[in-house]
Design a protein that fits this description.
By secondary structure, the chain is α+β, with helices and mostly antiparallel strands. The protein has two helices and three strands. It has helices at about 5-55, 65-75; strands at about 85-90, 100-110, 125-130. Strands 1-2-3 form a three-stranded antiparallel β-sheet, with helices on one face. The chain is rod-shaped, with a radius of gyration of 24 Å.
Length: about 140
């Protein structure tokens, strides 16, 4: 015995609503994951460029924390420069041949929030590079 036409269309609407919500969650999850990977790649690139700044300008032109942060933030495309934290260990001035570890941190906030991420608090993205002062 088949259901009347009116009940079949109601079932289709309910099934569509459930499947469409799942589809939207997957799409927004993929978008958020892509944004997070892009932000991490930007942080890693900024850390590499900060390391390059230390190599080139390390001992000849003493690099202050302000100059180092400027070198990092101008290479962190699309990220909020006020939220970037730059830490150099040891904290200059450096001599030629010194090894310096540079850590760049950025708090990444998911836009879709609780729909995609386990919590609504920012995820800390960080990248570290270790370089030798060349000049």
């Amino acid at each position: 015995m088949s259901l009347p036409k009116r009940q079949q269309s109601g079932n289709a609407m309910v099934e569509f609503a459930l499947v469409f919500l799942l589809f939207l969650m997957i799409v927004f999850g993929l978008i958020e994951f892509g944004r997070a990977v892009w932000a991490y790649t930007s942080v890693a690139h900024a850390a590499r460029m900060g390391g390059r700044h230390i190599i080139v300008h390390g001992s000849i032109n003493p690099t202050t924390p302000t100059k180092l942060k400027e070198a990092v933030t101008k290479n962190a495309m699309g990220l909020d420069p006020t939220k970037i934290v730059v830490t150099a260990t040891p904290a200059g001035p450096w001599e030629r041949g010194d090894f310096v570890s540079l850590r760049v941190q950025y708090p990444f906030q998911f836009v879709a929030g609780p729909l995609v991420a386990a919590s609504s608090s920012p995820m800390a993205l960080a990248s570290t590079t270790r370089v030798m002062v060349g000049n």
